[in-house]
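To fix ideas, we reproduce below one chain and its tokenised fold.
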Amino acid sequence: MRKIGTLLLLASLWLILSQVARAQQGGGSNDSCETAAPFCTGTIYSFPAGVNSGSGQLGPSYGCLTTRPNPAWYYMKVDNPGNIIIQMHSIPSEDIDFCCWGPFPSQDCCGLLTSQKIVDCSYSTSSIETCDILNAQTGQYYMLIITNYSNDPCNIIFQQTSGAGTTDCTILPPACASNSPVCTGQTIQFSAQNVANASYFWWGPAGFTSALQNPVITNATPANSGEYFLRIEVNGQGSVDTSTTNVHVYQPVANAGNDTTIMNGVYTTLHGSCSGGSGNYRYKWSPSSLVLNDSIPNPRTVNLFSATVFTLRVTDDSASCQSTDLVTVNIAGGALGVNAVANPQSICKGSSTQLLAIGSGGAGTYSYQWSGPGGFSSTLSNPTVAPAETSTYHVSAFDGYNTVQTDVTVNILASPVPSAGPNKSIPNGTYTYLSGSVVNGTSNYYYSWSPASKLINAGIQNPQTINLSETQVYTLTVTDLITNCVSNPPSSVTVEVTGVALYTHPVATPPSICIGDSTRLHAAAGGGNIGNYTYTWSSDPPGFSSTEAEPFVKPVIPTNYQVVVHDGFNPATGNTTVEIYPQPVVTLGPTDTITVCIFDTVTLDAGNDGSSYLWSNGSTDRQIRFGTTGIGYDSQHYSVAVANQNGCRASGEITVNFSFDACAGINDPEFIGRIKIFPNPASGKVTVEVPGSEPETGLILMNLPGMPLTKMNLTKSGDILRGTLDVSHLAPGMYLVHLFNQDHTGTLKLVVE
């Protein structure tokens, strides 16, 4: 019975696996690693090879398989250890290939199919292939892919042909699947491969159970998402494992963002999003003509000029579920505009005006670009221009989104053209009248001459200049009182000043005089209005006046003379001082008459050093000396004329009386009695002695007429005064020896032989 049961079990397994194998045709459920069918050793597998049924999934390392068309996947769980040799062939003979990976600890190995896990691989052109799995161990899993390289219809037959290893051939659940993903409200359709005599048992999320081979769930919700399980029973024996399939029920919710308000003519960015789906979304905005890209969640609109309702349609690419939402973009304000003005719009040539661009509407923030004649360009809203002729200026206003344009014309008014008149030439210090005129304009003008400080009235047409002392250029600027246009350029006139300014440099010739002399004053005027001078003289100290050009004066003290010279336009003043030389002062004595001792010698001094002298006795020396005979009374009269270095003259005179009455102690008997003269008569040397205590005593040897021959002072020797006279050169005769001091005087006779 056990053998019969075993045979029945093997027959059932062969039937199940045959059904599974047949289910692979045309890209069956085992066309991926995750849906691989089990392989049982001892069973011959035959299935129609897929044709145009896709390619091997991405992820695994396929080793030698350069291409993987029409794949069929199988997995093996090792039961008995050892080698497992599998042979594959096609009927009719077509090129098939394979790759095998392992070992793995479980069937969940699709993410582990690396090149290191490849145990065998063939990409030959043969229709017969052999896969060698060596030394397989109990509980290990291997994964096998068989491909129809030829892509021609054929059956592929494969089985274990040798090796002691076997696979676990207990009842296995069939592959199962669903139409996942689906959208909320749609029907979930489950499917399982057909197994003969099998009963099906499904269970899953939200309490789902079913005994149908291919059950459905209508009106699906996200709560139905999750993993669903399938097991089967064949003739009362249940499958060891379960098959699973994952179901995703998506409910995408589109969000077009919040309504917004923008300024007229600007753009905005829409803010779309989606939630509740797979996360793999496609976006579609409408109207598509009003967005730059209608297939992204956050597109930028074009510049909008009216309120617009945008529709966002989101498609979940996993299940093609769709959701829509609306958003309104409202418009505030008016359309972008610009107005251009010039202030003032009419200007004089050479003047400037300010342009002004005034934007309105649009985004509310504006940038400007001006252009005009002569290459003028500016980005200011209010540039200043100074056109030379009537000109039109263009301005563009940009609010960041749109541009509008306009223009404004600046008119140039006619300017007055002045003439300052012909150049003039005047004498230094005089004035003249300027002659202004003007053409163009309105004939109502304001005249402005400069420099105003050089004119009597600078605001009239023909002003008088001030008295000019240097050449002066005058400029005439004329303002049209109707248009306020100012002449440009102004007109100029030159007033040439000839000669020099009126001057006077008075002098006196000679500048210094002696008292009693006269000098002539000279105004020495020049410049100015030559030939039209008048003179006014005065003096300090006061007392002199004259209107002559060169008057004579005869001051007795130093005097300053002032003169005012007038040329009919200007005065000039000057002064000069006439100095008085000092007069020589001649003092010959304390009085005009003096009395001296007849024995005295008188010296008269005329003083005034450096002067010239002429005495009455003919001497030209400053001093003269004279005396008398000493015999008796004598009277002499002298005069002198003195001229100093400046030529100033003075004179003096004196009378000198010689008298014995003026001699102190004359012929004092006691003094004479002590005088000794020896030898007397004498012809050679004579000694004169005066014994006793006498003051300094002088000696004069005279002839009888009183003419001094020898003078000396006696020398004191002890109590004796002594002197020696040499008379050897004197002619024989009588001589007088006169001795005198402050106390005594005496005269004795000396006979020379």
Observations:
- Residues 1-28 have pLDDT under 50 and may be disordered.
- The two ends are 230 Å apart (CA to CA).
- The longest helix spans residues 2-22.
- DSSP finds two helices and 63 strands in the chain.
